[in-house]
Amino acid sequence: MTDSRLERLQAAIPGLRLTTDVADLEHYGRDWTRRWTPAPLAIALPSSVDEVQGIVRWANAEGVAVVPSGGRTGLSGGAVAANGELVLSLERMNRVLDFNRVDRTLAVQAGIPLEAVHNAAREHGLVYPVDFAARGSCSIGGNIATNAGGIRVIRYGNTREWVAGLTVVTGAGEVLHLNRGLIKNSSGYDLRQLMIGSEGTLGIVVEATLRLTDPPPPTNVMLLALPSFETLMQVFAAFRERLTLEAFEFFTDRALHHVLAHGAQKPFDEVHPYYVVTEFAVGDEAREAAAMAAFEYCMEQGLVSDGVISQSDAQAAQLWRLREGITESLAKYKPYKNDVSVRISEMPAFLTQTQALLGQEYPHFDVVWFGHIGDGNLHINVLKPDDTADADFVRQCEHVTKLLAQALERHGGSISAEHGIGLVKKPYLLGTRSAEEIALMRGIKHSLDPRGLMNPGKVFDA
């Protein structure tokens, strides 16, 4: 805290919590990628919009870069501070600010965990439907910054569909109140949507007004075992035609292997190469009959080898654990991750090509696939062998990612479906966005962050 810049920051905002403790610098300076050595200048933990605005104005005066920080559960290096930046953590700004029963909205501070939003909505008989496994540790601000998706996109869409308004501190230190909760608003550019998915490169989301909706109808969960990779999209089509799907998630035998080793319960006596966990609306005899009809059709056609349907909430949770526990079960291996998407109609051809590509390029690596097949999103996790150096492993994986990015470009896909670009995927942005689009992005950043201090080096280089 002897740095004169930090002394001036503390003098400008006397109540600001500021730390340079070594453990704090390491904790707040990294995200789940674990590929960069954290080296922030300090950690600021503001408790109000005024304090955030004061920090950004100080950063402009001192020329100090700022890395906004939520739950740091990202997988693209978007919250890494490795070059003397000030980490601005929003974790103390974690309150529910207002509930409006008429508008069915919930106003929250950006540091509130997703699970707390779920709980607050439930108290009023409503739901905030965006959901994923990191719900207990990720923050709403981070979800907004990456336009997070998750396991129910097939039914509800991404985060941007549920954001009615935002309060943002721009890179120039201005406070913007965007859209103000309106349903219809055709008065010029929608800067709210511009901020969603911007990864903290334009400014800092400090408050959000979230749309809520009715709880879903009663649902059941079914786990399906598939005999081959080729049947996956046929099973999806059969279930989508007959049922109202809440989720349709795919994973491989290698994913199941790691989750079982992590403590999950084995679902079948036999091992199958591919699995699907799907959740769908029930509640009456017709819907329950439709679910059984879908399963029986797939069995008769040889598309499914086995299956189990939940008979209780506890069993549904056990089945979901097989999918939601994958990321946690792989964490100790420091996997190299790809998070890609294509249009659903392109998914069969893309899956076939990708399977061949990964089989050829990773013949001796443990590759774990899973994904949100119902919305065209595939996650590929490559586990580092014990006898391979970290640098060599990353180098080989980046070579394969370049080939994967070329395949995505041919299919009109994206190198980042829901985790952002950050540092990890920056070299491949040009395959997803044109040079003209990237030039416009740079111009937008310059308008809102004229000194280039907001999360610099993420998404693209200035």
TrEMBL record:
Cofactor: FAD
Pfam families per record: FAD-oxidase_C (PF02913), FAD_binding_4 (PF01565)
Electron transport listed as a keyword: no
InterPro entries assigned: FAD-bd_oxidored_4_C, FAD-bd_PCMH, FAD-bd_PCMH-like_sf, FAD-bd_PCMH_sub2, FAD-linked_Oxase-like_C, FAD-oxidored/transferase_4, Oxid_FAD_bind_N, Vanillyl_alc_oxidase_C-sub2
Record keyword Oxidoreductase present: yes
Keyword annotations of the record: FAD, Flavoprotein, Oxidoreductase
The FAD-binding PCMH-type domain, residue ranges: 36-215
UniProt-recorded name of the protein: FAD-binding oxidoreductase
